[in-house]
Design goal:
Elements lengths: L1 E5 L7 H10 L3 E4 L2 H7 L6 E4 L13 E3 L7 H11 L4 E5 L7 H12 L5 E5 L3 E6 L6 E4 L5 E6 L4 E5 L5 E5 L9 E2 L4 E6 L3 E6 L1
Parallel strand pairs: 1-2, 1-5, 2-3, 3-4, 5-6
Antiparallel strand pairs: 6-7, 7-14, 8-13, 9-12, 9-14, 10-11, 10-13
Helix pairs in contact: 3-4
Amino acid sequence: MRGVLWCNGSIPTESVVDWVLTTGAPVFGVDGGADKANDLGIEVVEVLGDMDSLDESAWKGRTLPLNEQTFSDLAKSIEELIHRGFDEVEIVGADGGDPSHILGNWAAMNDAPSGARIRIHHEEQVSTRLHPADGEFSAEFEEGELFSIFAIGSGKVWISGAKWELHGENLGLSSRGLHNEGTGDVVNIRGEGVLILISKR
């Protein structure tokens, strides 16, 4: 089951908005992201978060306050959808704003429990969370197609089928994972910790 989380960052590109409309998946606003989605004519089924960036009265009966301040609204919203049985969580409107949100968005994917594919959609690329409990990730990459792998925490990483492979080497958060290349074959990726795969949309 797929759900979309609309964040309170920059307005997504037209191609991302069109993609959201074609999925037919329910759209949940993450705090003030609900207003931004609504302004674009997107139907928002419910607003999640601590409600500090929107007028709750305008969304009466369609809010779920998540007031725990230990984690970000995005982290809490991802966990809420997974708790409801969503196994595909698509995140849009997460770019822009405070620079700390860039790493914070990845951290939110790291905080989330296993059992769901979580993706953040950027203008031309997508960040995909790879959780060790979900097993090996496999996808075909065209010859010369760029992708990057970043480890959120240190641990052994395995990459096969790419131009530059790793065979159980320790990889922490490092530029070493920047701009690997496909070879026209299936690339297999797994790690002992959470990995973030950045690839084209």
